[in-house]
Design brief:
Blueprint lengths: L3 H8 L3 E12 L9 E7 L5 E8 L2 E12 L2
Antiparallel strand pairs: 1-4, 2-3, 3-4
Length: 71
């Protein structure tokens, strides 16, 4: 989350604090020196962001991040 959450908050500053991680899946290993990319997308629920970490076109990790609404 230390790498992903700041990117989500940069893209959508109105998101609040990270409150939960759902459906976290480690599909393929990530090794030292792997070149990775991060894909973020808002879901239908505006307080959630889907996250995918890829190596080339191979999914390594995916999850849905839930954020608290800012007051």
């Amino acid at each position: 989350s230390e790498l992903v959450v700041p990117e989500a908050l940069t893209a959508w500053p109105e998101l609040g604090r990270l409150s939960r991680v759902r459906r976290l899946k480690f599909v393929n290993p990530i090794r030292p020196k792997d070149c990775l990319s991060l894909k973020l997308a808002r879901t239908k629920d505006p307080a959630r962001v889907s996250m995918t970490i890829l190596r080339d076109e191979t999914i390594c990790t995916s999850a849905t991040l839930g954020f608290e609404a800012q007051s």
